[in-house]
Design brief:
- The longest helix has 14 residues.
- The chain is globular.
- The two termini are 14 Å apart.
- The strands form three sheets. It has a six-stranded antiparallel β-sheet, covered by helices on one side. Strands 3-7 form a two-stranded antiparallel ribbon.
- The protein has 139 residues and is α+β, with helices and mostly antiparallel strands.
Length: 139
Amino acid sequence: MELSTSDTECISGNGTIYQTATGAEFEIYCGINWAFGDLYISYTPDFMTCVENCAKWNENTNNTVCLGIAYAPQNYGPDESQFECYFKWELQNASSFSLVDSAILVPAKTQNGTVNTSHFQANKSLQAVRVPRPHHRQT
């Protein structure tokens, strides 16, 4: 199978931290799907745009935080040049799934090691979020 642009983006960043234009950081997981917990679905041309849009959502909303994304490059949007991008409000039930790539928000840490939630509204606490670590797929 030929790799799409999104596959290449994920493979080159698998297991690394990606910093978005907003300054939010996401850990990249290729071939991992977070079942359930869908907050919003959009269509983006590539994996990194999906991640960037999740970070922008958090900057522009007073509601639920986008804790991560699941990107499905095999599922076309209405115009077949963009693909399914799921924002996640909950991250549970991680599983290997070669057709989906994911990224999870890394809570910002202060110098003393505590979680910094100051850029979120009071109802958007990241301190209570428990994110299980998925198993990495071999590349």
